Amino acid sequence: MLTKLFTKLEGYYEEMVSIRRYLHQHPELSFQEYNTAKFIQSYYEKLNIEVKGNVGGNGVVAKVYGKKSGKTVALRADFDALPIQDEKDVPYKSLVPGVMHACGHDGHTATLLVLAKALNELSKDLEGTYVFIHQHAEEYAPGGAAPMIEDGCLEGVDVIFGTHLWSSEPTGTIQYRTGPIMAAADRFEIEIQGQGGHGAQPHKTKDAIVTASQLVLNLQQIVSRKVNPVEAAVVTVASFTAENAFNVIADKAKLVGTVRTFNEDIRKFIESEMERLIYGTCYSANSTYKYDFVRGYPPVINHERETEFLISCAKDVTEVKTIEETEPQMGGEDFAYYLQKVPGTFFYTGAKPVRDDAGYPHHHPKFDIDEKAMLIAAKTLGTAAVRIHKE
Fold it and tell me: Is 138 a catalytic residue?
């Protein structure tokens, strides 16, 4: 069965590349992926595969039924892009100013579409049901996974698998991890209200920039001095805004950033400790503040049995040269919500481009992938989907 599947996937590889490049040229931002969703739904309709659109928003869910009874296995791919200008010099460069697929979601979508096509053609030899979850809005919390789950995308599902094309690792590499593999991803906004004035008369003001600068330094002590060193945590101030003329002392300053954790107790501690530090810093400066801590995705926690099963599946793919356990990543992923509902695992498929000028990280303006990694991802996911019925 796997030989038949692999042969079909290899035969459809050029189609996979074509789909990926089309999507790369026509990216859409989170919660705005209307045309992408239509493209996905139309692809399934042309193949006479059962499909439903507008699942939890712009999500699309398709199903392929085997002729024999068995488990219901779900495979997921995301399809939103990022607000980044594409700076690559390639024929499939984004045609949308300021928007690009800088995280490989176009590749995820192409992988899943072609895998669904191949499995559908082999349905008479398959067991169980195959659910293809095409998820919108992974990049921006609250994300698309939770509303899709609320809308029933996991109904009847016994197990779920997902992968992320990983540009930092060579093609032919599969990275896995049992337990936490990606962190909880929260964001915060802090607005400090001081009292502005003339740049030549600081003694008559409450300088919001000075207060905010002090706060940035104070926040760095949370992880370095108040979190157990054996625990992983990140507090990052990513934006500092206080625009004024050269001779005006700012009355307002805004800080925006992110908190990443794996441990829920530490997550709660950082949220409360931040406010304590904000209060103390602003109190000493006789200023006021607004603090908003927005909880994003929970940590991605892989299930042990399904992860071990995935490892065995990867060994069946000849293009896979390296299978290795990876360290937890501080990036976030709303695949976490699926794993809270059903057993499964999320893994990385190496996709580092072979071009010397293309080794850029995710979310970079020149990000790209080795498209051959899509075939490896399809074979690995397909193997898991087919073999799970024997477990």
Answer: yes
